[in-house]
Amino acid sequence: MKKRWLSTALCAVMVASALTGCGGAKETTAAATEAATEAKTEAATEAATEAATEAGSEAAADTAKEPVGPEVTLVMAEVNPLETIVGQTDSKFKERVEELSGGSIKIDLQASGVLGSENDVLDTMLGGGGTIEISRISAFALTSYGGEKSKLLSVPYTFAGREHFWNFVNSDLAPQFLLEPHENGTGVRGLFYGEEGFRHFFTVKEITGLDDLKGMKLRVSNDPIMNGMVEGLGASPTVVSFNELYSALQTGVVDGAEQPIANYKSNAFQEVAPNLILDGHTLGAIQVIITDEAWDKLTPEQQDILMQAGKEASEFNRQISEEAENKVLEELKADGINVIEVDDITPWQEACKDIINESTKDNAELYQQILDMK
Length: 374
Hints:
By secondary structure, the chain is of the alpha/beta class. 53% of the residues lie in helices and 18% in strands. The model is unreliable at 1-49 and 51-64 (pLDDT under 50).
């Protein structure tokens, strides 16, 4: 850097000397002197800028390497593969937590359901013992554990579109929903929200519309709203673990199920149930939760890091979700999957009217606030 400065200044002096020798005019000498001064100033400025940039980079590197608080490893569960929308969101969260903490917080991300189904993971987390500290779950998974506010997010046809959902996520209501399980003594708390696209039904046998679902055995998780919705559609809700769903479809234990499009493909369900009807009954709202036990072991600074990383992961999720879903849908169509569009959703809404009313009556005002965020 110093050599470059000297070289630039020397060139300017040589130019000045040559100009003086040619005429010795005051104007020429002044111009040459000004040129030399400007060159010297420019070189000095460049040198100073480079020095500041290098110093800033070194300082940033030092900051990034400085651990924040004591070292801790948090085991995180994910039922889906890492290449899915939720898997990518988990990975972004892990990456940012480890970067922001200077490596003091490690996230041990266990994907593809190796730690069990969502319900298995929740049971483990709520039971204590610390073997799983963090998990990405469907927002409605807490319904069976007293999540009255969370329940509202899984009510059929609540969200008119993605923008509607993100209006909720960025509202003053969202933090109240995230903290509900902590406040009611469940033993976990939410860190951030995301989504994995609208959920649709898929079946083994070919279908053309709503009427064809009648009498079918449709897989559901152990969730009262999901059960009520399937019954409203005239089908029979059948509880099957997510990890066993592929074989259940293959062997006829169930005739169909429902998932977001990206999860449908990433878990190869199209191989055994190649009929996908785009009813979009619910948006696949997700949240990442942490046990109160693990949260309380973190320093305030580390807790802030988890919240900041969650905010960034949530925004990342928003950026990739719709694009990823559209890409997968086109791939499914190209592969010959029978994709059925739903032109009029009204009959579906009417069929689910009872479970919608039943699920929202105790929080009607709160539910209306969500509906008004369109």
